[in-house]
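Hi there,

I know you've been waiting on this one. I reran it after we fixed the sequence typo, so this is the corrected version. Both the input and the resulting structure follow.
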Amino acid sequence: MPAIHLRLGAFSAALALLAATSSASLAQKKYDTGATDTEIKIGNIVPYSGPASAYGVIGKTEEAYFRKVNAEGGINGRKITFISYDDAYSPPKTVEQARKLVESDEVLMIFNSLGTPPNSAIQKYMNQKKVPQLFVATGATKWNDPKEFPWTMGWQPNYQSESTIYAKYIMKNKPDAKIAVLYQNDDYGKDYLKGFKDGLGSKAASMIVMEESYEVSEPTIDNHIVKLKSTGADVFFNITTPKFAAQAIKKNAEIGWKPLHFLNNVSASIGSVIKPAGFENAQDIISSNYLKDPTDQQWKNDKGMIGWNEFLDKYYPEANRADASVMYAYTVAQGLVHVLKACGDDLTRANIMKQAASIRDLELGGLLPGVKVNTSATDFAPISQLQLMKFKGDHWDLFGEIINADVGG
């Protein structure tokens, strides 16, 4: 009898030991390159120079936000090291900077790199290396392809969804429209154009009287605008980045062309587009948004907006608060912090993608009320809701309901 007791004792001791070691291994910290007990190294690529340099403010805002996070104790006790490089919106340069970040700087991920052509140039590389290309700063529909590209995820509503909404609005409110389209001759421009044509359906061929493309290297698009006016179009869909959007709005006014004007969301910033083009020239332009407009008085006492202003006062006082890119960057940086916190002590690249693909109804201070961030293992499009808005006086007026504009990858 005592022998059995002894055996049972040894067995339970062994069980206890096993339980202790397995809980120790569960609690063990897991890191990939770029993460330690004290640091999380994040890479970023933004055009601080070149034709799309208006977007450089995105990198600056994110750098300021991560300084705030670090000052408040970091992420689960770890400080963020943010390494941001300029690619001048040139894809070959993007490739060079991505390699530098991954192979020399040894970052954990590349976060919110900007532009459709630049991100397209590094997508295969990032996925081969199995390094997260997380929350890319472009609304191309192709970032939502978890099957083919499990290491790449978008953030903002995709371009096809947005332009489908404009097309549906035109079909409903101006079914006999003659439409002229100006678009940037790259993946970004073509993505918007595809969604627009999908939204018009079988009427696209008869309603669109001209599709005019421009190269990002052109100094001005004035001649394209003159050409589009000559078609007699009464609707203009303006698919351009900020510098060219401001030129188009100005030129329209100069030559007295007053079509119903749709402006893509990526250039709806009052600070970097509308103000330089002249408020008087931008009246009644229609666009869409998912973010609060900081210049809109209706958000004056909004909790999210108060938080945004406090952050800028302390960490980025020189920011142009009328620039929508500042609000965009603030919000996506908060999205990343949410993901990193959810990772706990498992800061592996695989877990980062897993947590990024498990976001449920996340509400962030800069998003319009009712707009929530949602992802899943099969849906890599975090934000897919928009509200239409019209430019009046010196601000955008939101109208209609929040529209769920989901177009899958």
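Quick highlight: The CA atoms of residues 237 and 262 lie 5 Å apart.

Best,
R. S.
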